Amino acid sequence: MTTHEPHAHVAPQGFIRKYVFSLDHKVIGLQYFFLALVAVFTGMFLSLLMRIHLIWPTASIPLFGDIKPEQYLSLLTMHGTIMVFFVLTTAPQGGFGNYFLPIQIGAPDMAFPVLNMLSFWTTFLGFVVLLAAFFVTGGAPLHGWTGYAPLSALPSAGPGEGLGADLWIISIAIFCIGALMGALNFITTTLDMRAKGMTLMRMPLTCWAWFITAILGLLAFGVLLSAGILLLMDRNLGTSFFVPLSTVNGILTGHKGGSPLLWQHLFWFFGHPEVYIAILPAMGLCSQLLSVFSRKPIFGYKAMVYAILSIGFLGFMVWGHHMFMSGMSPYTAFAFSIMTMGIGVPSAIKTFNWLGTLWRGRLRLASPMLFAIGFVSLFVTGGISGPFLAQPVLDIYLHETYFVIAHFHLIMGVASIFGIFAATYYWFPKMFGRMMNEPLAKLHFWLTFIGAYCIFMPMHYSGMAGQLRRYSQGTEVAWIKELTPIQVFITFAAFVTIASQFIFLFNLFWSMKKGKEASDNPWEATTLEWTTATPPPHDNFGGKTPVVYNGPYEYSVPGAPRDFVMQSDAPVEAKH
Amino acid sequence: MGLVLLVVIWLITLISTYIFIAKVWWLPVGASAAAAGIDHHFTTTFILMGIVFVAAQLALGWFAWKYRDRGPASQAAHYSHGNTTLEAIWTVLTIILFIGLNLASESIWATERFEAAKPDAVQVEVTSMQFAWYFRYPGPDGKFGATRPELEDASLGSAGALGLDSTDPASKDDVVSGVMVVPVNREVEVILRSHDVIHSFFIPAMRFKQDAVPGLAIHMHFTPIQTGEFELACAELCGLGHYKMHGIVKVVSDSEFKQWLAAREAEKQ
């Protein structure tokens, strides 16, 4: 049961041990959170440059200069890589998961505190190596975040494919190592460190989501790590895992016998579970918030758990839907397509249950709830384009168009980010002891919600009209040129949406110092993090070990003294 | 706040649905035999998913307003952990919808991708390289001559760019063109190749897309049913010139096609 070293309970005193190389999961969670914050503003800034270049191709950017076509491709590669790895994987799991999983299950820390510290610093190193790619000769790679070989394997295939591409691969490999260590820690902690009475089926859905996400990470990142090492060998040691007999500009590459499709299989075997790694924590969190702020038990707790489990399981059987047009056997496309439509079922069940939770609730529309409702809306919108792309017949036309961009940005990008925002507004009082400014939070919500729709909804239209992604300019192909007005609209929507993120940034730092002081349980929620002090002491519960008697979502129980029964409260029998 | 949520969510839903339904932007007019079936299935999927989209968003906005906390005046929330019958109903309905939709489309996929081209199809080898397309016809002998990577030299013209081996008798009558010319109402067998990185051959009007992968020769087919010029473009990130890697498919009458091919043969001799 206790794999936890006792010395970790003694709070360290020195600055370095307390804030830099800390073993405390709460500090490490905040470190992940701030790393993701730096990463998300970096990634957002890159997308701003891309948006500007798309509608003003000759515009010169202050301090940056002209954007050349290859630089546009570097921007999109780095934008995707930073956002997927260092934001969507880092903040929900490494950040909030690290901070709140142990507290929500009643544990004093993660199972392996040293490993936890190592996984953060490994991830941090990965980020530094990735950014370094911008500053080497040739610049950052242009092969996209999916790094399809042979483009990613041949230094002669384009600028950025030299040292920049090596750094990109090394960065991802480092990230994988960090993610694997993190995954082991989350799984062990969930299985071994739960407080007395915290049975698996009493765990908050957030914990279920972090737990299953960790299992996905354990299975997926190992494959990506291996693929990355093979790619590095192709590039530097003359192997040919991914490169067949080929020429660039009529010059033989010296490779033969490799398979470009092998890279895609390995990449997407990681890449598709990665989508769920990004979205599952947000799903768990929004389930939690909809229940807390509707003052109602979650609709169908068991169904929600089974949905998370089946999404995790099916998530490993659908990777081929990224490869319908790749030259993979069309027969396998049939199988992957059925599995992909199948994974839509648990996703739909979750949506029904979210609506069922709101139904006949008593909704408190505070900022975390607004973002949770926004999440459901975005999840539905991003979700319903899935069955188009999951059918090979329709993917023939839609593959690599802006329709795909709209789909995955809404569902794994914006919806997950809404989960991160909701988590920030919700847990900020527990983490920093103060409330965030509510009017600013609401302003931030409205601008971001409407802004995100203005950016991504039109991409469906341009995608249906055939607009291809990863085109640095839309001026060469006649049918794409006609779609310029849509791109102009999107760029202006992006200006407003990006600007409004500074409201969030300001609110975050301002509230740390000036926010209204928070009580221990400002949202009147039931889970264990609200039973302890604000912010929680080093060992989370101040020497006491909580005992759990109730499920996580006992709101408005008839006959109970107040409208919520905490998990550690004496059990209350509902009187109907 | 509940009312604002309702208004905003409903407005977003209705405006975006209107732009879809009004077909302000839509797929281009189809010009191949498969286009009608694909477009029909697109519309079916669109209608079904559209209903789900509108219903879910309207319900979300409605609930946000209807069940908002109105202070002491509002009722306590309904204490319920869910409803197994409802869960079962919507699970089964979703399975039927998703899997049914998928099965309905598989016959088109089978026609497009499981079946080989007919024996009388016009063969065109499409070779891609950074950042150009070359189209090769086998000539009267019906055989493509050998190509060798070490002979590739784009400065020697389009045959040189392919590395065509002039010592191979089958290569003598091969025609290489920078424009794809095909006859109308006859199946075209496309043999896709790439020299360097992955490209993707996309002709929107033909509802045709397939990656060209180095090391593979991928056989595909489509049947143009309308004459005219149709633009094609690369749909897989292939490097800095990706955005300008486009070309033209010219669909002409059978006699014009034969004339064009004969003229190109004559030029060669």
Description:
- The complex is a heterodimer of chains A (576) and B (269).
- Chain A is mainly α and 576 residues long.
- Chain A has 17 helices and four strands.
- A two-stranded antiparallel sheet of chain A has the order 1-2.
- In chain A, a hairpin with a 3-residue loop joins β1 (60-61) and β2 (65-66).
- In chain A, α2 (25-55) packs parallel to α5 (113-132) and α11 runs parallel beside α15 (438-464).
- Chain A starts with 14 loop residues before the first helix and ends in a 62-residue tail after the last helix.
- Chain B folds into two domains: 2-68 and 84-114, no CATH class; 122-268, Cupredoxins -  blue copper proteins (Immunoglobulin-like, Sandwich), CATH 2.60.40.
- Helix content of chain B is 39%, strand content 21%.
- Chain B contains five helices and ten strands.
- In chain B, the strands form two sheets. A five-stranded mixed β-sheet of chain B has the order 3-2-1-5-8. Chain B has a five-stranded mixed β-sheet with strand order 4-10-9-6-7, with helices on one face.
- Chain B is elongated, with a radius of gyration of 27 Å.
- The N and C termini of chain B lie far apart (79 Å).
- Chains A and B meet through α3, β3, α8, α9 and α10 of A and α1, α2, α3, β7 and β9 of B.
